[in-house]
Amino acid sequence: MARAPLLLIAAGGTGGHMFPAQALAEAMVRRGWRVVLSTDARGARYAGGFPHVVAVEQVSSATFARGGAPARALVPLRIAGGVLAATVRMLRDRPAVVAGFGGYPTIPALSAALALRVPRLIHEQNGVPGRVNTVFARRVDAVCCGVWPTALPEGVNAVHTGNPVRARVMERAGAPYIPPGDYPMSLLVIGGSQGARVLSDVVPPAIAALPEALRGNLRVAHQAREEDIPRVLEAYDAAGIRAEVSAFFNDVPRRLSEAQLVISRSGASSVADIAAIGRPAILIPYAAAAGDHQTANARGLVDAEAAILIPESALEAATLSAQISALLQNPSAATRMAQGALSCAVPDATERLAGVVEGLADAKTRKKEAE
To answer: Which of 1, 28, 149, 241 has its CA 20 to 30 A from that of 352?
Structure first.
């Protein structure tokens, strides 16, 4: 009896790469495929959400963006070691397709697939591609984009699949929105680990400056860096605001569905989750994001009048407080924003991407049969 086809998913060590990779893994397992995740130690921390049948292989990789000169000098050697190990693994159990989701940990798997002529694709989540996906865009069989249009290298053809969202998000997709009013309301504050500090600086004083009647109805869930949690809690406590502060919420889909308003960075996965569930948002793009890709990510929601964008350079407590107050005191506008967010969702993004995977595998099979 023939073994099920194998999909090797390669993804870097951030939630922005790992969450859509997880969504694809869930879909391919349902379709009867075997799935292996190739990532680094950082990415392995996100692997707990993947289906339990997905094997996790940690690879040797590195980035030139961190560390001193000695560490950067060793980067090529570490990447070469990872490529060699990935090649040996593929020779033992050849994947039908390799799918890369960006980040330096995808280099070994994509390089080995290129050398062994294994069908391969990349999925770019952001409106401006990262360095690794830019390099591989001309060296893969398919380029899939989460944001449309995406600023791809000249001459690269791509397909718009949208950004896949995890099954736990899809379970809440389109959940009825309860508009703000004179009753308890939920406000969710989420930001990637790199960009959470500015939100911790500005959001608590912004909420503290709200009118007392509005502030008294709020309960806040705020994602903050571990080292910032004590001061963020203290700021909320001093203002008499009910707040839960954590470095990581493992139930973000539920919290999104219950929120009257979301304040967030505009990472690709966050934007996709907000659109899928359909919630009004204030988006604050991470200023240090490569190529300002978070501003590009936010464009769809902003154009649909589903989100308010505040550049980090213009982010002040008074400005943010005024926007929060305006939204939470205008239920009809908030409801229109929620509906606008839903209009930006691509609910079949995962199925579109899974279709590309199976299409590449089928093309390879037909080519072998023709030979």
So the answer is: 1
Same domain, 38 and 155: yes
Residue 133: inside a domain: yes
Please tell me whether residues 73 and 204 are part of one structural domain.
no
* 4, 18, 37, 124 from 44: Cα distances, Å: 24, 9, 9, 20
**In what side-by-side order are the strands of the sheet with 97-100?**
55-58, 34-39, 6-10, 97-100, 120-124, 142-145, 159-160
**Amino acid in the structure at residue 210:** L
Distance CA 198, CA 90 (A): 43
- Tell me the chain's radius of gyration from C-alpha atoms: 21
241's enclosing H/E stretch is: none
Terminal Cα-to-Cα distance of the chain (whole angstroms):
23
Local structure of 347: helix, strand or coil: coil
Same domain? For 293 and 200 the reply is: yes
Residue 140 sits in the same domain as residue 203:
no
The structure tokens 């969450």 sit at 19
Structural domain for 271, as ranges: 185-343
How many whole angstroms separate alpha carbon 113 and alpha carbon 34? 17
Pairing of strands 281-283, 307-309: parallel
Q: Which of 361, 301, 288, 344 is nearest to 65 (CA)?
A: 288
Length of the chain, please?
371
* pLDDT averages per 10-residue partition of the chain, 371 residues: 91 90 98 96 90 92 56 73 94 98 94 98 96 96 96 95 97 98 97 81 98 96 95 97 94 97 96 98 94 95 98 97 98 98 97 98 89 74
